[in-house]
Amino acid sequence: MTAESVDLKRALEAILFVSDEPVPLVSLATAVSAPVRQVRDAVASLVEDYDGKLDGPVRGFELREVGGGWRMYVRESFDEIVGDYVSVRQPSRLSQAALETLTVIAYRQPVSRSQVAQVRAVNVDSVVRTLLARGLITEAGQEELTGATLYVTTELLLQHLGINSLEELPKISPLLEDGRDGFDE
After folding, report:
1. In terms of CB atoms within 10 Å, which of 57, 73, 77, 87 comes out highest?
2. What distance in Å separates the CA atoms of residue 31 and residue 113, rounded to the nearest whole number?
3. How many CA atoms within 13 Å lie on the side-chain side of 149?
4. For the whole model, what pTM was predicted?
């Protein structure tokens, strides 16, 4: 192993560490200014390293090829521990974007990502992933016409809000120009 290959692997590792979506090999190669073939070999070596096949320990995370790219994931054997930490023990401060997305889902559920994005006028994919990871929303089937996944809030959200049901959510009609009660049409 040359110093150059170590630098390439560490550079790829750093990019994959901060990426919240799968990164295609071509994008990785462009980011590190290396040939795709060399990046493919380096990624394969990282996979082996994380899986404990290069004389090191099996890591608590793994590198998977999904959705046309590569992304780091928690190793399945640690899902429960990490899920517990993320949803219960980690401070539940949410970004403004997450709060807005959660509000749309709470008032319009069941709702698809595209419907939420339409209301917010921005892409909500990463925010929805965050809310799913924290256990504040969950998948609730698919939209019949489009097949899009539908999302609803969970009991954990109600617990965090200190309410017993969604009917206890405050009415937002005073904030809407046409006086509608919530987002209902």
Report:
1. 87
2. 29
3. 10
4. 0.49
